[in-house]
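Regression test attached.
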Amino acid sequence: MSRKIALGAFLHPSGHHVAAWRHPDARADAGINIRNYIRLAQLAEAASFDLVFLADQIAVPSSNLDYVSRTTRATYFEPLTLIAAIAAATQRIGLVATVSTSFNRPYNMARYIASIDHISGGRAGWNLVTSGSELEGENFGLGDDYRLHANRYRQAAEFAEAVRGLWDSFEDGAVADDRAAGRYLDEGRVHALHHRGEHYRVKGPLSQPRSPQGQPVLVQAGSSPAGRDLAARSAELVFTAQPTLAQAQEFYADVKARAVGFGRAPDDILILPGVFPVVGRSHDEAQEKFATLQNLITPEVGREYLSLHLGGIDLSGYSDDDPVPEVEVGERGHVSRPLLLLQKARSRNLTIRDLYLEIAGARGHWQIVGTPAAIADQLEAYFTQGGADGFNIMPPSPTGLDDFVELVLPELRRRGLIRDQYDAHTLRGHLGLKIPANRFAAATARPREQALA
Amino acid sequence: MTRIVSSSARMSLGLFLMGAGHHIAAWRLPDAPQGAATSFDHYREIAKAAEAAKFDMVFLADSASIREFGHASIGSDERAVRLEPLTLLSALSVATDRIGLVATASTTYNEPFNLARRFASLDLLSGGRAGWNLVTTSNAEDGPNYSLDAHPPHAERYARAEEFEQVVRGLWHSWQGGDAFPIDKAAGRLFNPDSLHPLAHRGRHFSVRGPLGVPPSPQGHPVIVQAGASDAGREIAARSAEVIFAAHQNFDDAFQFYQDVKRRMARHGRAPDSLRIMPGVSPYIGRTRAEAQAAFDELQALVTHEVGLKLLQPFAGGLDLRDHNPDGPLPDLPPTKDAIGRQKLLVDLARRENLSIRELYLHIAGARGHWQLVGTASDIADQLEHYFRNGAADGFNIMPPALPRSLGPITELLLPELRRRELFRDDYTGATLREHLGLPRPDLPAFPQSAA
C-alpha cells in the first residue's frame, strides 16, 4: 500500500475564523449544539478522514469580557465529554481530544481517555498539551510559576509516562470470564504500575482492559525544542503550525531525527501541520469567501485576539497602523506561537492591523486561499517533499469542511494521495501505527522464554 | 412530618446501571453479556430500555482503583473493570432523548473547575438532563493512585467536599441576568459581557477565578445528588443536595433518615420538596413468590467464598476476615476511618439478625448493603408504596440484580403494578431531569434554543 495523506478534521464551532460565528450560514449556538458537531463528524467520516480533533482552553480566554462577548470562546463544550458524545454518533473515524496535563491527574486522565477508547471500539487519541496562560492557572489556584516552560514539559513527560503505564495494566487475555470456575480475571495478568517520579506517584492498576487498538494514540502539539523532544520521545502524532514549506521541512526532519535518537523508527511518529483552506471553484471565488470572513472582524476583536496570541501583551498604547511592537517572549507561558508571529511581522514589516487580519483565520497556521487544484498542489508538495505525513484541516467557516470534502478531496483522490475508504476499524489502523507492546507482558514473557531455553 | 400525598404525586425512579448487574455474581449467569462492564452497546441498550420505561434517570457509581488489589483476590469480581462515568454518560446522551443522566464523581481526587465544566458540558450535550452524584472517596486504596500514602480522614474529606460543592455551584452561576444572550450577529455581540461574572473564590482548599465558559442548560445547571449517610453527609445534603441516594435496610431506618434530613433542610431555609430522597432497592421479581425466590437463589449459589469476603473487607476496619470461621459470628470490628456509615449499617444488620460471616456476605452480595426485596410485583409494590406514602422515600434508585436479565421483570411486572396504583408516570411530561423530578429550576439564563 502506497503512503497516503493522513487527514484530521479540526472542529471549531462555526469554523476557525474568529468571526465565523457572524457568517450568514452560522448558528450562534454552534459551540454548544451537539447536532452541529455530529453533522461535521459524520461528514468527515463519510469522507474517510482519519480523525476529528478538538482543541481546548480551560478558561474564558481574556479578562476583557467585552472582547470575549464578541467571540464564541465562552460558549463551547468541554472536549472529553464532547468527543465521547461524538463517539456514540460515529463508527469508524478517530476521535482526538485535547486535554492539558497542567490541571489534571494521570490516573483520571488515563481513565477518561481509555473509556473513550472502549466506548468507540478503539478510536481514541489524546492530544497532550501543557497550559501556559495566567487565567487558566487561576482557575486551579496555581501561581505564576506553573507557567515556567521548562517545568511544564518535564512534568508533562512524566505525566505521559504514567498514563501509558496505566494503559498497560491489563495484559491481553486478562479478562478470563471463566463463568464455570467463577474466575473473571486472570490476576497474574493484571499489573500495578508503582510509578514514583518527581511530580507523581501512581500505584495502579487502571481498572480497564486494553482496547482493540491496544492503547489510545498519543498526540502532541508543542513546537518548541522542549515540545519537540517530548513529541519525539512519546508522541505518535504531532499537530503543528508550519506556515511555509521550508519551516515544515525543518520541523519534520528535526522531529523524526529526534525520534530516531530516542530509539524509535521515523514512521512511529506522524507529523500533521494545521491547514486553514479557503476553497473556491475559481481563485476569485476563494478570495471572495475569505474577504467575507475578514470583513466581519471588528478592530476590538482583532486587537485583543492578536494580543492574546502574542502571549497577552498590552497593545492599548498603539494604533492599528503602528508596526507590531517588540515583545519579549519569556520563560513563562506559550513560546512557539508568539515567536512564529513576531518573526512573520518582522520579515514583512506588518502593522498591528496587518497581523491581526493575518491571524484571524488560521492563528499562525498555514493558510491557503485558492482553487481545489491549487490547494491540492500545495498539500502534495508538503507531503511528497518531506514536510508532512498529513494535515489537520481547519475549516474556516460553517461550510468550510463541506467545501474541502466536496472540492479538494476528489482532487487528492484523483492523484492517489488519499484512501478511497477505510480499511481499518481503529485510529491506529487508519494511521498505520503499531499496537504498542504491553510493557508488563514483555517483562513476564522474557523469563518464560529463558526457562524454556 | 409524614405527608399526605395527593393523587398526582408520583415516585421518582432511577435505574442504577452496573456492568452485568448489581448482584456480585451476575456476570456468571449464562446470559450475561461478555465484557458487559466495558461495553458501550450493553449500556446503550439498557439506557434506551430505561427511557422507554420512563425512568427519571440512569445512575452510575464510580471507583478510582481496583478494590482490594494486592490485598485479596480480585479474580472473581467483575467490578475490577469499569468505564469512567462522565464519558459513558456523554456517549449515552446522544443515544437517548429524555432520560436523566447521573454520574458519580468524587471531590477527593478532582478539581472543582474541571468537574463544574465537564458536568455543565454534559448538561448541554443532553439538553438539560445531567446530574452529579457528589461523593467523597471512602476507599483508602484510591489515595496511592493520586500521589498520597495516607488517605485523607473523614472530616477533612467532608470539609473539602463542602467547599468543592460551593465552588462548583458558584461556577454554574457564572451567567446571570435575563438578557444574557442577545446574539446579535450584525453588531458582533454574542452575549452581554455584564452577564458573565468571575467567581473569585478564595477558600481553604481552593482558589478559583472563573468564570465558567459553558452557558447554563435548559434546566439551569445539573441536579446535585448526594449519597453520604454520616452526620456530615446529611448536613451537606440538607444544605445543597437535590436528590439523595440513600442505603437503608428497613423502614424505620429509612423513615428516621428521611425525617432527619428534611428537618435539617428547614434549618437551611429550604422547602422539603426541593430534595428527593431515593433509597436504593434491589428487587428480585417473579410472577410467583417461588419464581422470585428461584431467581434470587440462582445468583446466591454463584457467590464464591473469596468474593464474599472481599465484599466485607472494606468495612472490616483492618481486620483480616480470612482468619475467622466463615460460619461463626461476625467478630467485633475496629472502627473504620473511611466508611463509618456503611460499617454501622453492616454491623447492626449482623447483630440484629444474628448472621455469620458467610450469611452476612451473602446478604450483601446482591445489593452491597442496600435494601433487597424478593417477591411478586405486588409484594414489592406494597413495600415501595409503604415507604413512599409514609415519609420514608420520595422514590427509589432501582438496582437491577442482573443486566439485561432483570429489565424484563422490572418493566413488564413491577412498573405496570406501580402505574396501576398511580404511583409512577405513564409518560414523560417534561424534557429535563429537573422537570422529571419536580425540582425547581435555578434562576439562570438559558442560551436561546433555536438561535439562528
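Expected vs. actual: identical. Chain A touches chain B through 80 residues (CB under 8 Å).
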